[in-house]
Write a structure and sequence with these properties.
With about 90 residues, this protein is mainly α. The protein has helices spanning about 15-25, 30-35, 40-50, 55-70, and strands at about 70-75, 85. The protein has a two-stranded antiparallel ribbon. It is globular and about 30 Å long. Residues about 1-10 have low confidence and may be disordered.
């Protein structure tokens, strides 16, 4: 069962904005991300719109998919929550 996206916590390591930004950097459609990550398009849509918070395994799958494609999740002070293509500043 998914929780509302307004809840925060350690499991929520991929925000709706990060998902949209990572997908935009890769020029991927929701269909393409669904195919590559094996996460349903409905789940992706719910995540990106902030409707629900996916299970931790779903977030892990999405992060792994993005990272394999060259997306880096930034954890630098003052830039937390940002994403970039690997090798970019």
């Amino acid at each position: 069962m998914s929780r509302p996206a307004t809840q925060s916590g350690p499991r929520y390591s991929l925000s709706p904005a990060q998902c949209r930004a990572a997908r935009a950097l890769l020029a991927w459609t929701l269909d393409e991300l669904a195919d590559r990550s094996k996460v349903s398009k409905n789940t992706l849509n719910n995540l990106e719109t902030g409707k629900t918070l996916p299970q931790a395994s779903t977030i892990d799958a999405l992060r792994a998919c993005f990272e394999a494609a060259g997306i880096e999740f930034i954890t630098e002070p003052g830039r937390e929550g940002a994403v970039r293509r690997t090798g970019q500043d």
